[in-house]
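can u do me a favor
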């Protein structure tokens, strides 16, 4: 996997914004098969920053029902919370 296959998107939420301002942490949606070492290398390659720590967790998809009697399910995904070195930033706009 290359770096752009590992990191899918950044999650922009209120909680994530507070984490960015307070702890210099960013929340990313990553490939489910990627491990912490691959995620760290991908973030450092793409954004040119120094990663201090990475926390990962698997998020289960929710049960959904859209205009039908049969229930569906949104997909499972993996979340990575990346802590950067003091002074480094990722511009997400």
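np, heres the sequence
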């Amino acid at each position: 996997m290359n770096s752009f296959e590992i990191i899918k998107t950044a999650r922009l939420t209120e909680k994530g914004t507070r984490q960015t301002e307070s702890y210099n942490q960013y929340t990313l949606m990553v490939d489910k098969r990627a491990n912490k070492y691959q995620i760290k290398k991908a973030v450092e390659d793409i954004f040119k920053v120094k990663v201090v720590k990475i926390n990962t967790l698997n998020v289960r998809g929710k049960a959904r029902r859209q205009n039908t009697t049969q229930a569906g399910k949104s997909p499972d995904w993996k979340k990575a919370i990346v802590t950067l070195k003091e002074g480094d930033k990722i511009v997400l706009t």
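The chain has a mean pLDDT of 94. hope that helps!!
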